[in-house]
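User: I'm curious whether this sequence folds into something compact or stays loose and floppy. Could you predict its structure so I can see for myself?
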Amino acid sequence: MRRWEKLTYTGLLAACLLVSLVIGNTTLGVQLDNDVYDFLFRLQPEDRRETASIILGIDEQTLSEMGALRNVRRILAEGLERASAAGPAAIVLDMILADAGDPQEDAHLAAALAGAPNLVLATDLTRQGQWEDPIEAFRRTAAGIGHVHADPDQFDNVVRRIPLEKSSARDRRFALSLEALRIARASKIVESPDGLDVGGQWIPAARTETEPRPILIRYRRIGAIPEVSFWALKNDASAAARLKGKVVFVGMTAQSAAQDRHMTPFSFGQTMPGVEIHANAYETLQRGEFLVAAGNLTVILFCAGLALAAGLIFYRLQGRPAYLWGAALLVVAHLAPYGAFAQGVVFPYSAPIGTAWFTLASAASFQHFVVRRRLLRAQEEKGRYQQAMHFVAHEMRSPLSAIQGSSEMMGRYKLGEEKRAEMARMINSESKRMARMIQTFLDVERLTGGQMELKREIFSPSTMVRTCIERAQPLAERKRMTIATGKLDEVSLTGDRELMEYAFYNLLTNAVKYSNPGTEVIVTALSLDGNLRLAVRDQGIGMDAKEIKSVFQKFYRTKKAEASGEAGTGIGLSIVEQIVTHHGGSMEVESQPGAGSCFTMVLPAQAAVTEGN
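Assistant: Here's the prediction. I'll summarize afterward.
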């Protein structure tokens, strides 16, 4: 690729990367990431290991058989007495007991709570910023109090994470599941900016500006955590044995009686009781098998890597290999979130996928149009190159014909000494002209390919101008034109005189060829700011701004030049520019359609004139 093509290509890929990262942070991108996160959860094999927790639930049968919600504190008291007798590791009550009820029932429940081992009670933070703590009669015997907040996602109302702490003013509470872990391990919660340590269990939960120490819950499927109902505990002697040594989460599981039910990644429309969510959170903390979100820098670097890979694929390869590698890159982008999830890392989906698709599509399209443009340009240049070869052959035919005809006459006829000498001079002149023509073309090609060094000779541009005018005068006379000279400053140039003479002569003959009969061509050479401005101004067909931009391209000819009937290949001005550029100069063009053109060589000059060889 050319430099500007490389810059455009790089900028296009960078724009695709930026757009993908921005989309990944929009509502649409976040929702897509959440959907993929839930899907990956459901792809994981079912965890059949024994749980450290169990649910003691007030289900539909319990309410039906034991007196409905009006007797819930009596149900709790009786069930807790039986549960405590079974020898659990801890009892975690997921019910808010912030209001006093029937004195007799409250006293019964307080006694049952006092007998519960390692009791953890629940509290809730109201919208007004007040904690709804259990009443003193219940709270005094509790080993800990934890909040029950399991805030649903704002976009789809699914609970994927819980905050491990909540604060109101200076009053802070840890999560119910975290308090259960602390008490079950008989340890303290050691805090640091990056996480928490509970009895040697490191919990990667950093405090952020938007969320207070969030953790992602590694859910089991709905119903995977064992449950014993209060009714079963009362009527089945074997049910109590299931509570032994377990952390017992007590709460409402009846669908008809609880508003504390939420959607989870496993839901499919089936909600999960809040007590089961807290039990899942406890299992996540207890096992230490955490899901950690990939860092922003990691995501950006991964997406940048995808964009770079896509760019290199279509920069280095073409055709089927490029598309096969592109397909492989898409597979990597699609599977990366799954591979990361299997290692406990939650990787976003929308940004990498968007990056892979956008960059591959853009890179492929860019390559297609660049290759197509190059092919068309190559075909066009091939045609013009063939025209140039025909022109060169035609130009060489004239001296060849003169040489051939003269030599044939000298061999066939008896000519006088004077005639033979004239023909010999013609043969010598034409052969030299053809040799110069060939050598000029070869020199320009070698100069363009970097295979030739310029001669370093000092010469007078005014002398060169007069020589070229003298050579071009017969062409001008045939069109009844005049070649006039304006001011010619006496300075000197350093370089290859033959090449510079060829370049200037080309400008001069072009001016004559493409001017109307009876007009004038003016040549000036002005010294200005250390440069020589050698200009050829005509009164010919002229060019518009678009044509001026392309006039130095190899094989380019304007439509008016082609319509003029003048023979040409479109390589003359290209050669002129190359010669001037290699002499450290530049070309300037002024032109208007129908008003003529002025081609100016701007060359570094010296003040004094010193001829050299």
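Summary: The chain has a mean pLDDT of 86. DSSP finds 19 helices and 24 strands in the chain.
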